[in-house]
Design a protein that fits this description.
Elements: E1 6-7, E2 10-15, E3 19-23, E4 30-37, E5 40-41, H1 47-68, E6 79-83, E7 90-94, E8 105-106, H2 120-136, E9 148-152, E10 158-162, H3 177-180, H4 182-207
Antiparallel strand pairs: 1-2, 2-3, 3-4, 4-5, 4-7, 6-7, 8-9, 9-10
Helix pairs in contact: 2-4
Length: 209
């Protein structure tokens, strides 16, 4: 992704397998997330289903915010509204930025600079996010480096901020025991975070000459 990475005239902030996030000139502290198919706007026939999925994601964020209050802000990007656009429905969110206003980068975007992944504060941020999800019983199992933004706070601390809630809405399990039983949920979260730490270790190790 570069400063010239545009999607239908918008500057791209981030891309995923089936989403693109763009910045807004009239609201620099906010962004829009679109569902895409092969990088292009989803067909209009899918818009009602997409709008429903985005509305469910917004409702989940709002429910979590009511339950956990400001404590949620350190770990989850704020979802603000679902909006119709000429390219289909989009989820309006608060942009994730450092204390000085610079846009935060995902862990995946930092793979090209493994030294940044070796900061002790980042390891502490991973530990805090895992402890928060387990302590609050939030079944967010997709701890993908592309969906975790490392935010620098005053004083040198780092927080990991989740920018995609989809995996907390639906399960790939036939019988979602990890959502119903706390000990199963905690075990699954522990496995997911262990896998994240191993992946970061592999990136760092590959960079050693």
């Amino acid at each position: 992704m570069t400063d010239n990475d545009l999607w239908n005239g918008w500057q791209v902030i981030g891309r995923g397998a089936n989403r693109v996030c763009v910045e807004l000139d009239d609201a620099p502290d906010q962004c829009l997330k679109f569902v895409v198919v092969d990088g292009q706007p989803a067909p209009a026939a899918r818009w009602p289903k997409i709008a429903g999925a985005l509305a469910a994601e917004l409702a989940l964020y709002q429910a979590l915010r009511r339950r956990h209050g400001p404590d949620l802000d350190a770990h989850f990007a704020a979802c603000l509204a679902v909006e119709p656009t000429r390219y289909g429905p989009a989820l309006r969110c608060r942009r994730v930025q450092h204390a000085d206003g610079r846009p935060a980068r995902s862990l995946y975007q930092q793979f090209d600079d493994p030294r940044s992944l070796s900061r002790p504060a980042l390891g502490e941020a991973i530990d805090r996010l895992e402890a928060f999800l387990r302590g609050q019983g939030i079944p967010l199992f997709d701890v993908n480096p592309a969906n975790l933004l490392a935010v620098e706070r005053p004083g040198g601390a780092i927080d990991l901020v989740v920018v995609d809630l989809k995996s907390a809405l639906k399960s790939k399990e036939w019988v979602p025991l990890s959502r119903w039983l706390p000990f199963m949920r905690d075990r699954k979260l522990a496995r997911r975070f262990a896998r994240l730490r191993r992946r970061l270790d592999d990136v760092r190790a590959a960079a050693v000459p």
